[in-house]
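I am hoping you can look over what I have pasted underneath with an eye to the fold:
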Amino acid sequence: MIVYFSGTGNSRYCAQMMADQLGETLTDAFPYIRAHKAAELQSDTPWVFVAPTYGWQLPHVFADFLRRSSFSGSREAYFVLTCGSDIACAGEGIEKLCHEMGFVYRGVLEVVMPENYIVMFRAPEEQQAHALIEAARPCIESGIACIRRGENFPRRKTSLLDRIKSGPVNRSLYRFMIRAKPFYVTDACISCGKCEAACVLHNIRLENGKPLWGKDCTHCMACICCCPAHAIEYGRATRNKVRYQCPPYQG
């Protein structure tokens, strides 16, 4: 079974492609996380968990979902992390999580996809994004081949810089930067409510047709990237930046 979490579509694309080629069941963690509920899932084939990389680690919201859920049947676990550049030492944290949960860790696959964390970086234009997705497909296919052969994903070599990014930098991001307060909506808002529906933490409510953000936020960028009117900003950090949302996998 393939279980995935996705904010702006990159991880959904990878999960859909893998499910299609492996003939596996696909389960979206979004409704469970949004409702803060545990899942009770069963699979006789290895588990494949797909998620984005937040601050060079597995997203906290997805890791928490895994911890409170029940996974019966197979104890083998593959992880696939999408990223804009690299996953640094995320695999070390995932391996510890697997030991905690009683899984046999089969490795983590790094899949570089179009950047979408526009609070810090720039998303690519549509043509460049399409090229990046096409370039990622051979990597995803190599992961599919490993799973079919029952092999571990190749272990990624890491450096001191990787440890800094997945360690102190990650902790600093969650402590000082990942906040909802800077989000605001401009007069371009059309009151469609898509941002409210896209928030995995149920942190957005509409008041007089306009979104208001609560305190909880995981910086998935779903609200800002799904807005059809490009009416959502994050302070000054996102002004005049391209918004990117990955389309679904089409085969």
Observations:
- The chain has a mean pLDDT of 97.
- The CA atoms of residues 177 and 219 lie 9 Å apart.
